[in-house]
Amino acid sequence: MHSRREFLKVATTGLAAAVASTSGMPAQSAPAGRRLRFIQMDVFASRRLQGNPLAVFLDGRGLADAEMRAIARETNLSETTFIFPRDPAVERIHGVRVRIFTPDEEHVATG
Questions:
Q1: Residues with Cβ < 8 Å from 93, sequence gap 6 or more?
Q2: E strands in the chain
Q3: What pLDDT is stored for residue 1 in this prediction?
Q4: Choosing from 79, 91, 105, 106, which is the catalytic residue?
Q5: Which residue of 27, 29, 95, 100 pairs with 107 in a disulfide if CB–CB is 3.0 to 4.6 A?
């Protein structure tokens, strides 16, 4: 149902480093050498490559709000999500903590 493309190294200042590393060009350093891991998924479809692309950053800990907004603008997808891992026992009870951003703003779940 989902197609996945995993990028092992993505600079927080943009996707240029990931593109460069897959094209044989030298990767560019992120500030303080910080890199993030994310998966791009195809969601809301039962067949590959027919849904909406969604970026899922696997560990958003340590990112400021402004950085998450900038990353969402850079991916330019309908939604970019950031997972905030916590203790597995807490996740079993309360679920996974996720923040969702569009290129323009954070989406705050209601209800």
A1: none
A2: 4-11, 35-43, 52-57, 79-84, 97-101, 106-107
A3: 33
A4: 79
A5: 100
